[in-house]
Predict the 3D structure of the following.
Amino acid sequence: MRTSFGERLLDLAVNGFLWGFRILIVVIVVLGTFLTIRAGKYTSEQWIDFVVFGISQGSIYALIALGYTMVYGILRMINFAHGEIFMSGAFGGYFIATWLTGIGFMDKYPVFGLIISMMFGMLVSTLIALLVERIAYRPLRGAPRLVPLISAIGASFFLQYTFRGFFGPGVYAYPSMKALDGEWIFFGIGILKVQIVVTIAAVVMMSILYSIVMFTKIGKAMRAVSENKDVAALMGIDVNRIIVTTFALGAAMAGAAGVLYALTYRQVNFFTGFTPGIKAFTAAVLGGIGNIPGAMVGGLVLGIVESVGPALFLDSIGIPRPYQLKDAIAYIMLVMILLFRPSGILGERVSKKA
Amino acid sequence: MMIKKENLIWIAIKTGLLSGVIAIFLCLIGMVEVFSKRDVIEHIITLGDFILLVSAVSAGVIAARAASNPDQEKQPLKNYLAGALAGLTTGILIVAFIGLSQTINLRSVFLSASPSLFKLLTFKGGTSWFWIYPAIGLASGVLGTTLFLLPEKFRQPITRAISITFLMALFSGLFRVIMINRAGSTAKLAKYLFGQTGLTLSGAIIFFIAIIVISMFWSARSKNLQEGFSRIPKRGQTSIRVAVYVLLAYVVIMLPQVSGPFIAQVVVIVSLYALMGLGLNITLGFAGLLDLGFVAFFAVGAYTVGLLTSYGIFGLQHIPFWVAVPIAVLVAMMFGAFLGLPVLGVRGDYLAIATLGFGEIVRLLAGSDFLAPFFGGPQGIIGIQKPCLGTLGEFLKVDVPRICNGIEFGGPKEIYYLAVASAILVAFIALRLQKSRLGRAWMAIREDEDVAEALGINLIQTKLLAYMLGAAFAGLGGAIFTVLVGSIFATSMQLIVSINVVALIIVGGMGSIPGVIVGAIALIGMPELLREVSEYRFLFYGAALIMMMLAKPEGLWPSQATLRELHHEDPGEDLEVASSQAKA
């Protein structure tokens, strides 16, 4: 093998750059953390607030990430429109919650009201996901990889601007639930009720999904299809039905996440789905794409880093208003995972094969 | 597969229901109402009516086709039955929609289901809508069937005439402005053919008939003409080609003088997108690296030129535009390498998301308070010096623009030349690159990275060059955009810019240089010219991307390689698809 001097130099430069990049990030993280802790600008109560917010946010990301990861596991495709499916769930939840609040049901039975609006959000997003799968994805199975991805980008835009056409560009304020205002006190620390409810609801949804995938017949079939489509078909599994079921389950999780997200931020807009969608994808990659527990872990880690990160890493190294860079932290994390450990925290598949 | 009679009826009804749902969808997203403000044929058909009609007619065509699907044999009775039924179902569904809207208040959920929409749909109140829609639906279904049954010789000219007349109507404002600027008989002709918005009735008829005649003549004679052209001796052919080019050049040069600043501005934007499209075409079309953060390079070019030439507080101001542009292109190239390096090993879908992240990081950083001392943060950079051919006047003091002694590229009419010239230059470079050794190396990587590496292609070098050259073109686009607008804000560096560029490449045809230009005209130029449509442009983009992937994944003007790739898949894959479909 003959390699010219120039080529070796290029290799060296590339490797040097990559290592420099890694070291830079590590230095920023370590130095920032050290300086922040020494400066003691934030009280421990504030840190707990950050972490709790991160957990509730992260559990929403985890719910959305499940949809990405399951679809990727089976079809090896990124469902780019998943963020919009999440947004449609938020809209569905909004309309039912407004109606329930209007007739006074929400104040009387807040738990049922919440469950009903989540169910409705899940229904709406499942229907939309099935429609998208039928129209934009199914005819393209077996096409070159770029083709379904671009179709998915198209579907994402189509859905976004359909919702804009339906409901206008304005922001819809979610009805406030009296039962969720205020804080609960644990060991002398006040935690917002919304965050606790959101976290619990997300954990319940995730455990339902996990038990479906692990302990039911259809879950077993899903795992089989994600392992090897052809062999699964030979075993008498209806691959098409399993794919549809996967989309439906992922969309239902996203719909529930949409309602929870709207509860946290109290607003819905046709563009709501974009950023959480990208972040949830980051979470899925972080946990190892195609891996269901990985998506959950990835979501939590991303949520916590994103909420703690600006204060912990950036504040003390002289960056004004570090919260503006909250989203940038998530994106940088995405690039870092692809650099450091493309297979993710719990994953085995290597992204280079993708 | 024989289609039985009851099956036939069910298919027709299903088609009708589908097109009815589409019509209702168009109403609910507000398209019908917005489009009804614009005429296709003055005082007769609005654009809103037109899209509803099209959905009913196409239901007729599809149902009629489905009716004679098994053996492609045309049985008029069956076809008419199916077409009429489909059209009728569409009409009935619209009636049901209007009826529903009168019993419950749809407005509480759907913003566009406004009283004015229903006033429009019910023909300003009254009950005539109850029978008009089914009747129109039936008629359109029959019309669609007739279109389907016509022999190819007549059908093609008619569909062509309808679509071209429709396009003429859409762009009538453009033609009208150009023609009315010329005094005398041209202006009179313009008023005869074109109404305020859309064609006049007489104009529509004239265009329709003229196009049918031309098209039939063409299909009869085109072969002869081509043969005639090839029979002309070589020198003659060359001189004809040269004459065509000269004519084209004349049109391009004269266009802004004739059409006014608005059209010039549209052409500038189209050229800028074509420029960026040619850049991304290198990364995506040639090398197969899907970059969704292309806007980052655009931003780098724009900010570099802005910082170097602005006379605002962040600017260096003493550098003229002509020096700043090469610097901007170089900086963009370096940035391309910088962003390309970390993602060298990342492939496919992951690359798309990672680069999307880059684009967002650049936007967030540029707009943040962290870098505000350099990039102006949310306030952006203003007061960017216009390019000047000639000497710059005396350096007066900071915060005052310098005076240009010579030709100043002040408005869109002048920047037009800059943009078009750059686009042509870049297209030429891209064309040369495509056929070079490097271009072939890129295509090898696109087809199979591992095989390419085995053949001795240096992956790192080749990929980095793809990123860098793509970035250079985008940087040039950003630089020209900056002087066109005169200011930069981080908020204009949205993901949507990247998506626009990707969409135009896909629609035009990946890896095809003429395709990029066609895509830029179709996706950027048309919505810019059609104000009514621009509100729904992203909806169109989404639909266009999906439909292109479903129907014509190679694009409008495909390159030969993609054509081959998409239409001769290896048999193993086909078998796999077939087996999974058989299961379904």
About this structure: Residues 569-584 of chain B have pLDDT under 50 and may be disordered. Strands of chain B lie at 39-41, 45-46, 388-392, 404-408. Residues 88 and 135 of chain B are 7 Å apart (CA to CA). The two ends of chain B are 17 Å apart (CA to CA).
